[in-house]
Design a protein that fits this description.
Layout lengths: L2 H4 L4 H8 L3 H18 L11 H14 L3 H8 L3 H17 L8 H6 L23 H11 L2
Helix pairs in contact: 4-6, 5-6
């Protein structure tokens, strides 16, 4: 689905389709637009897809894990262009503190206590039919004639 088709959906359906709220989507678009302007300030080719469609493509990839080939065909671009666009969007959004995940050290510093339960599962043998030598030797005797 292209952005022109989904922008008229209700907030609930928009969230169900993209996986993010509409306000979060627009915040992502603002970040990506400013990053794209910085990237293109020295010149460069205009993107075939708008920022909204590129972001929608990346969210579709992250939500459904479709192949780059299928996503590229849906949006009318090549597989490599789909990969480059999605990778750029992921890298750009991760650099921003709004969308960065806290690291392991932040979890260790938190006041939450975690309880871990380990379950040891005993091995059970696999039931297989017993091998019978008579079956194999009879087949060999027939083939040697």
């Amino acid at each position: 689905m292209k952005y022109d088709q989904i922008k008229e959906l209700s907030d609930e359906k928009f969230r169900r389709l993209t996986g993010v709220k509409r306000s979060t989507f627009y915040k992502m678009v603002e970040i990506l637009t400013s990053a794209d302007q910085r990237k293109k300030s020295r010149g460069g080719r205009k993107n075939k897809l708008s920022i909204e469609n590129q972001l929608l493509m990346a969210l579709e990839y992250l939500r459904e894990y479709r192949t780059y080939f299928h996503i590229g065909q849906s949006y009318g671009i090549s597989e490599s262009s789909a990969y480059k666009a999605i990778k750029w969007i992921e890298d750009t959004l991760i650099k921003r503190p709004d969308f960065a995940l806290s690291g392991r050290k932040a979890l260790l510093k938190s006041d939450n206590e975690y309880e871990v339960i380990c379950i040891d599962v005993a091995e059970s043998p696999i039931e297989r039919p017993k091998k019978n030598k008579n079956i194999f030797t009879q087949a060999r005797k027939r083939d040697t004639r």
